[in-house]
Amino acid sequence: MPARLMKPFVTVAALLLSMVSLVTSDTFSEKTISEIETDLKSRERELDSLISLIRTRYSADKRFCAKLEEAQRAWCRYRDLQIEMKFPEADKKYAYGSLYPMCLTLELIRLYTRRIEELMPWASGIADGEVCPGSVLIERQ
DSSP letter at 138? Predict the structure, then answer.
Protein backbone atom coordinates (compact mmCIF):
# COMPACT_ATOMS: atom_id res chain seq x y z
CA MET A 1 0.00 0.00 0.00
CA PRO A 2 1.43 3.45 -0.91
CA ALA A 3 2.58 5.55 2.06
CA ARG A 4 0.13 8.37 1.24
CA LEU A 5 -2.79 5.92 1.62
CA MET A 6 -1.42 4.26 4.72
CA LYS A 7 -2.05 7.17 7.15
CA PRO A 8 -5.84 7.45 6.49
CA PHE A 9 -6.09 3.66 6.61
CA VAL A 10 -4.33 3.53 9.99
CA THR A 11 -6.53 6.35 11.32
CA VAL A 12 -9.74 4.59 10.26
CA ALA A 13 -8.50 1.27 11.63
CA ALA A 14 -7.66 2.88 15.00
CA LEU A 15 -11.07 4.53 15.13
CA LEU A 16 -12.83 1.24 14.41
CA LEU A 17 -10.78 -0.58 17.03
CA SER A 18 -11.62 2.05 19.65
CA MET A 19 -15.32 1.76 18.79
CA VAL A 20 -15.17 -2.04 19.12
CA SER A 21 -13.41 -1.78 22.48
CA LEU A 22 -16.04 0.70 23.69
CA VAL A 23 -18.89 -1.58 22.68
CA THR A 24 -17.33 -4.64 24.27
CA SER A 25 -16.12 -2.88 27.44
CA ASP A 26 -17.82 -2.87 30.81
CA THR A 27 -19.48 0.46 30.01
CA PHE A 28 -21.79 -1.44 27.67
CA SER A 29 -23.61 -3.89 29.87
CA GLU A 30 -26.82 -5.87 30.10
CA LYS A 31 -28.11 -3.16 32.42
CA THR A 32 -27.72 -0.64 29.61
CA ILE A 33 -29.73 -2.83 27.26
CA SER A 34 -32.33 -3.28 29.99
CA GLU A 35 -32.54 0.49 30.44
CA ILE A 36 -32.97 0.98 26.70
CA GLU A 37 -35.77 -1.60 26.65
CA THR A 38 -37.40 0.15 29.62
CA ASP A 39 -37.21 3.43 27.70
CA LEU A 40 -38.96 1.81 24.74
CA LYS A 41 -41.75 0.48 26.97
CA SER A 42 -42.08 3.96 28.45
CA ARG A 43 -42.41 5.51 24.97
CA GLU A 44 -45.02 2.90 24.01
CA ARG A 45 -47.05 3.74 27.15
CA GLU A 46 -46.61 7.45 26.49
CA LEU A 47 -47.96 7.07 22.95
CA ASP A 48 -50.91 4.98 24.16
CA SER A 49 -51.73 7.58 26.83
CA LEU A 50 -51.45 10.40 24.32
CA ILE A 51 -53.81 8.68 21.89
CA SER A 52 -56.28 8.04 24.73
CA LEU A 53 -56.12 11.71 25.70
CA ILE A 54 -56.71 12.78 22.09
CA ARG A 55 -59.65 10.36 21.76
CA THR A 56 -61.19 11.82 24.90
CA ARG A 57 -60.59 15.42 23.85
CA TYR A 58 -62.10 14.84 20.40
CA SER A 59 -64.76 12.27 21.39
CA ALA A 60 -67.59 14.41 19.96
CA ASP A 61 -65.95 14.42 16.53
CA LYS A 62 -66.62 10.89 15.26
CA ARG A 63 -65.07 11.54 11.85
CA PHE A 64 -61.83 12.78 13.44
CA CYS A 65 -61.71 9.77 15.81
CA ALA A 66 -62.16 7.38 12.88
CA LYS A 67 -59.36 9.14 10.99
CA LEU A 68 -57.14 9.04 14.08
CA GLU A 69 -57.63 5.26 14.31
CA GLU A 70 -56.94 4.86 10.59
CA ALA A 71 -53.83 7.05 10.82
CA GLN A 72 -52.53 5.11 13.82
CA ARG A 73 -52.99 1.77 12.03
CA ALA A 74 -51.12 3.23 9.05
CA TRP A 75 -48.36 4.51 11.36
CA CYS A 76 -47.98 1.04 12.92
CA ARG A 77 -47.58 -0.40 9.43
CA TYR A 78 -45.09 2.37 8.59
CA ARG A 79 -43.13 1.64 11.79
CA ASP A 80 -42.92 -2.05 10.96
CA LEU A 81 -41.86 -1.37 7.35
CA GLN A 82 -39.22 1.15 8.47
CA ILE A 83 -37.74 -1.53 10.73
CA GLU A 84 -37.85 -4.07 7.89
CA MET A 85 -36.18 -1.57 5.56
CA LYS A 86 -33.43 -0.73 8.07
CA PHE A 87 -32.82 -4.41 8.93
CA PRO A 88 -33.99 -6.35 5.84
CA GLU A 89 -31.97 -9.55 6.25
CA ALA A 90 -33.84 -12.66 7.46
CA ASP A 91 -31.06 -13.77 9.80
CA LYS A 92 -30.80 -10.58 11.84
CA LYS A 93 -28.18 -11.78 14.33
CA TYR A 94 -25.88 -12.99 11.54
CA ALA A 95 -26.38 -9.93 9.34
CA TYR A 96 -26.30 -7.21 12.01
CA GLY A 97 -24.35 -8.80 14.83
CA SER A 98 -24.93 -9.28 18.51
CA LEU A 99 -25.92 -5.64 18.96
CA TYR A 100 -28.95 -6.04 16.71
CA PRO A 101 -31.47 -6.16 19.61
CA MET A 102 -30.10 -2.89 20.97
CA CYS A 103 -30.06 -1.26 17.53
CA LEU A 104 -33.63 -2.39 16.89
CA THR A 105 -34.77 -0.99 20.23
CA LEU A 106 -33.03 2.35 19.60
CA GLU A 107 -34.66 2.63 16.18
CA LEU A 108 -38.07 1.90 17.69
CA ILE A 109 -37.50 4.55 20.36
CA ARG A 110 -36.68 7.04 17.61
CA LEU A 111 -39.87 6.18 15.72
CA TYR A 112 -42.07 6.33 18.82
CA THR A 113 -40.56 9.66 19.87
CA ARG A 114 -41.24 11.14 16.45
CA ARG A 115 -44.85 9.89 16.51
CA ILE A 116 -45.43 11.39 19.94
CA GLU A 117 -44.11 14.73 18.68
CA GLU A 118 -46.42 14.51 15.64
CA LEU A 119 -49.53 13.91 17.76
CA MET A 120 -48.75 16.40 20.53
CA PRO A 121 -50.61 19.35 18.95
CA TRP A 122 -53.89 17.43 19.13
CA ALA A 123 -53.36 16.86 22.85
CA SER A 124 -52.20 20.35 23.79
CA GLY A 125 -53.86 22.46 21.12
CA ILE A 126 -52.39 25.31 19.09
CA ALA A 127 -52.26 29.05 19.64
CA ASP A 128 -55.30 31.12 18.75
CA GLY A 129 -54.75 32.77 15.40
CA GLU A 130 -52.89 29.84 13.80
CA VAL A 131 -53.55 30.12 10.07
CA CYS A 132 -53.97 26.40 9.24
CA PRO A 133 -55.20 24.56 12.35
CA GLY A 134 -57.09 21.85 10.49
CA SER A 135 -58.62 19.57 13.11
CA VAL A 136 -56.31 20.76 15.91
CA LEU A 137 -58.24 22.58 18.64
CA ILE A 138 -57.16 25.96 19.97
CA GLU A 139 -55.07 25.86 23.18
CA ARG A 140 -56.97 26.01 26.39
CA GLN A 141 -56.25 29.24 28.23
Answer: B
Q: Report d(CA 127, CA 119) in Å as an integer.
A: 15
Domain that holds residue 63: 29-141
> Cβ distance 58 to 64 under 8 Å?
yes
pLDDT at residue number 139:
86
Mean pLDDT, contiguous 10-residue spans, the chain (141 residues): 48 45 47 90 98 98 98 98 98 95 96 98 92 90 64
Number of domains in the chain: 1
Number of neighbouring beta carbons within 10 Å of residue 122: 21
Domain of residue 37, CATH code? 1.20.1270.180
Q: What Cα–Cα distance (Å) separates residue 4 from each residue in 10, 11, 17, 61, 112?
A: 11, 12, 21, 68, 46
At 10 the pLDDT is 45
Give domain status of residue 42, yes or no: yes
The answer to the question of residue 101 being in a domain is yes
